[in-house]
Every structure is written in C-alpha cells, then in structure tokens.
# Entry
Amino acid sequence: MTAESTPAETPAPPVRSKHSEAIPSRRQRSVPFAGWMVIGRKELGDHLLSWRFVILVLIVAAAAIVPLYFAADALRTSASTSDRLAARFLTLFWYGPPVANGQVTLPSVAGFLSIVAPLLGVVFAFDSVNGERAQGTLPRLLSQPIHRDDVINGKFAAGLAVIGLVIVAVIGGIGAFGIIRIGIVPTAPEILRLMIWILVTLVYVSAWLAFGMVLSVVARSAATSALVGFGMWAFLTFLGGFVVQLIQNILAPLAGITDISTYLNNTGTQQLIQRFLPSTLYQEASIVLLNPQVMSRDISTPTTIGGLAQAQQQVPSILSLDQSFILVWPQVVALLAVTVAFFAIAYVRFMRQEVRA
Amino acid sequence: MTAPSTRPIRRKGTTRQRSTTAPGEPGATGRPHQTGDDRPRAPIRTRGLTKVYGELVAVDHLDLEVQAGEIFGLLGQNGAGKTTTILMLLGLTEPTEGQARVVGLDPARRPLEVKRRVGYLPDAVGFYGDLTGRQNLRYTAQLNRIPRDEANATIDEVLEQVGLSARADDPAETYSRGMLQRLGIADALVKDPDVLILDEPTTAIDPLGVTEILDLLRTLVRDRSMAVLLSSHLLNQVQHVCDRIGIFAAGRLIGQGSMPELAKRFGEDVAHIEAEFDASDEAGDARVREVLAGIPNVTNVASPSAPGTPWTIEVRPAQDEIRVRRAILAASSSLSLDLTSIGTLPPSLEELYRRAVERAAHGHARDVR
# Structure
C-alpha cells in the first residue's frame, strides 16, 4: 500500500520484469552480494582480537624458534661443506636438527606443521555455527539477506585467513633468519617451491577447518564439538601411527612373507593404509616439495618387481619443480578431496537444520 | 509518550509516502494500473500454509492476511505454531504444503529479496556479547548492504527510538534481557523494513517499557505504513496494540478479526455493565441490589468488592444491554438512587481466547469422532 497509493512513483506497467509480482518497496534496495565477505570480515576481526589468536601465535612462533636455534649450527656447517646440497635454503624447513648428542631429533618446521595445523583448524572452527546458536544470534543472522552457505563460507574464509597469516609470517621469519644468520640466500625456484608448499599447507589446514565446521554444525554445544575435535586430533597424532600399524599387520603382514610378489603386494597395501592419515599425505607432499633430491622411490616403495628394478636403477638426481609437483599431485588432490567432502557434509547438514534454538 | 522519541526515520533519497487510506478500505488495495489481476496485495498473505514435522502438524492450513498499516497479533500458547509460521514467512523453513506471499514474493523461492524487506525480531534474541550494541547494529546494516553513512544515521535514530542511545556503546553482554529485546527491535528496524515480524516482542521488558515499545510500534505503523505481525501469549498487550488478532491453537487459526468481531464470534451472548452508586450504607446497597435485579434480562448482579468500586451487572442476551442501561438510568432518577457513573465493560480477550480454544477443541473432538 506504500507505493501503490502514489502510482506516479511506480514504474510504468509495460516494464514488467520478473520482479513485477513484488509489492514495490518504499526505497530502492540493491541486491546484496557476497554476504560471505561481510561475515568473513567480521569473523576475522573477532579472531584477531581473541585469545585464540594469541595462543596460535605463541604456539607457532615457539615451534619455529626452538628447532631453528638448534638447527642453525648444524645447517651452517652443512651449508659450508656440502655444495652438492640442492636447495639449501629450503633445508631450513624440512631439516629436523638432532639434539642431546644426536639421541633426539626435533621435528622440522614441516613436521611440526603437520602436527599443529590440524589443531589450528579445529580451534578456529569448532564453535563457528553452534556458537552462534548458543548466543541466540543465528536466527537474527539468517534473517538477513544472505544465503545460508554464506555463513559457512565466511567463517571458513576468516579462519583460513588468520591461520594463513600466521603461517606465512612465521615462514617469512624463518626465511629471514636463514638469510641473515646463516647466510643462505634463496634462489628463485626455491621461493617458488616455498610458495607452493605454503599453498599445500593451507589445503591441509582447510581439511581440518572443514572438519571443525562439520562438528560445529552437527554438535549442538560448542563443548561437544571441541571435545570431539581435539580428541580426533590427539587420537590421530599420538595413536594414529600405532593404529595404522595394527591394521597394516592384520591386513597385509610383511613378517614371515617369503614370496616376493606377496611381499610387494602387502607393501603396497600398507602404503595405502598409511596414506589414510592426512598427516602422511601432507608430510609426503612437504618433503618432496621442499627437497628436490627426494624422488618417487623415497616416498613410495615399489610394489612390483619391475618397479623395484626401476627404482634400483634410478640415478640420484635433482628434480625440477614440475617433476616434484607431479610426484605429490595425488597427495594434494587427496587432501583437497577431504576438504571438499567435509565442506559438503557441513553444507548439507546446515541447510537442513532448523533455525530455532 | 514516554522517554524515547518516535520520530520516523528519514533517509537521504528516500521518498516516503504516508498512506492516506486506512487499512481495510477498498482504496488501500486498489491498483488502478493493474486491472485484470485480482491478487490481493497484502504484504503478508498465506494460503493453506502447512508445516508437518514427522507426525506433528505444527501449522495446519493457515490462511492469513496482514495489510500494510496494520498490526496483526498472533495469539497462542507456546507450541501453538506461531514461531513455525513466522519462520515460513521468512523463508527460514520450507512449508510442507500451501503457499506464503510476503511483500508479494514467495519466501521459499526468493528468500533474499524477502529478507531484505522484512525486519525480524526472533524469540529470545541474542547479540554478540563482545561487540557494543551499536557495532551489532552496524553488522546488520553491512549484511543488508546499507551504505556506511546512511547506516550510521539510521542506527542513531533507531537506538533513540528504542531508548538505548545512552548505552549504545557498551558491550552487549552488559545489557539486561529487556535491553537486548529493545536492541532486537532496533536491529529489525535498521533495514527500514516494509514488514516487521516480531516474535514475542515484549516478554522480557518491564511494564513501563512495554508501553513505550507498543507506542513505538503504533507510530511506525502510522508513519510508515508498515505491516506488523507480532506473536504473543500476553493477551492484554495484544488487545491494546493490535488492529486485528488471530487466535492460534494447535497449528490452526481458530479465529481472526478485530476485537469486536472476535467478541461477536466467540463471546458468550452476555454483556456486562459497570455502575457506581453513592450508597455507602448496607441498607442502600440492599436497595440498589433489589432494583438492579428487578430489571428484565439482568441475570446476575455483583456487588462492589470494596467501597467505591462499581457494581457489575450481567445482561443476557447481550443485545439488551442498551435497554438495561436505560432502565438503570430511569430507575436511578425515579427511585432517587445516587448513580455516579455507568458504562459498558469491554469483553476481555482472555475470556474470548479461552472460549475460542475450548470451542476449537470441541470441534476438533467432533471431527475425530
């Protein structure tokens, strides 16, 4: 009754668009777009001011500085002695320095990230949807002109942005340390490798962020999703290796196998099982991308007699970036697939959920 | 009008038309240039709207119409299907059957356009505790793509309208329940909606605040000819502020209309007259009672509960109420009873509501049998 009472204001009747059935509004309203960006920006602001962010920075920084301190000496000597070492700069990221007279090996930066990245993903996602629900802000948020998936997308983007920011900053810091303190200067291909590795790291983080998102959609309370998320992380990190071994030895034992083809077969099965751990995928991708000397036989044991022969004939060499990338392409795709799968679950569940608390 | 101002919001580049036609008048829905198209243009309209959750029929073939410039009160107990109806109107839940049209659009198909033009106050509204009230509203404005300058001006105005200007820059976690409710109303108004849907808008607000909020709603409806749908289980509030009322029970709208219409439909055939007599002694009281009871069609006379309060006279059938009033006046002058005041008691919504629900329950029982 608003605009109708003054027909002069309404457009002429012939111009009947598909919107014509709408009652004209008092004011011009633009169609809102990219609601996820508005949500993402707000979430990013929240994250940057939150205690989580402080803890994130502390953990990652400590993780970078401690191994670096021990690695510095070892790296300096190896850098001066072995000129054959390709991509010396990248050694900073995959080299795990031995401490206590070589009895203990500290995890490398890449190794450490493979443990911590899942934790970060869960921390920044576990309460994203059920937190809104608990605060009573979800119905209000969803009654704004945004799509439901904007909520998930925006929160996901914000989480990824904040984790990415810290990871890039720390990696930049390590690089700077390497250049100034140890005197290793990166070459252009090394920088390219580093950037691709960072992208793969973000994919790995994404998988866990998406997992956290699923938990926050499915579990009604943030406490439940936190418990499940951290439990999953702890289980995979500390027990995952043992469980995998157990399954491997039940399904495809190697001990006592004398038949060479069975042995190779079982080796293949074992590798497959091992790769069900996302951290395995990430570690394989990391080492290949960061160290051009790592070849296919180093990450995949040959599973055929022919392959075995081929592997033995492989001449140790330095792989070009595209060769390294081809080698880990399956790993990267698998990580992406995990991310997409979790995302899909989060979407579907959230779309079907009732809005009311 | 108490503390908060109820100035209408003004915006740059906004041409506002005040509706000169009252709701319900034929001119209100007339569209001179769209002849041959007889769809009603009520901002909220549902046809056979139904929502089934498993076995439970939450909303059962709801036909509802809310015109621009009117406040419609949805009245019902908890679990009667009010919130489900509202969620369907917003496109947040898909109807099982039937259809809804909000500002002329199907909320299930075009939820974004609907939600851009509908302000919604959810039941038990919540805000981000670490943001201030103002920041919370700013976020809503951003989600609605309102330009920053315009949003800031609007936010100032709506905060003033709901009486929260003084606390606008405190974190929302320091707000009381009633303040959150007010902030929720401000939040629904930020987008300058054409339709306002309020789910239990006054539950947590103190009585004085309720009056302010209801006055604000009246002003908004009058100045901007919004269509307002509010749900409540607080009967007297609904009665005072709403133009029309829909009584909701077990998912069905068992009656709708203005208070007199509802009274006609659900009221018992009885009217009540209030009369005050200046007779303080017992003999006087007895005489008054005798006279009142002697008037034809008076079925019951209740003496004052305390000195100085009126008598209540029950009349059956209700249409004889005017005749009985005349008889009382005549008797008071001829028998020199000292009548000081006389009037008709309006039917109470509570009474109507109870009867409507009872009647619906009986009807339902018959259907089942």
In short: Chain B touches chain A through 60 residues (CB under 8 Å). The mean pLDDT of chain B is 81. The two ends of chain B are 53 Å apart (CA to CA).
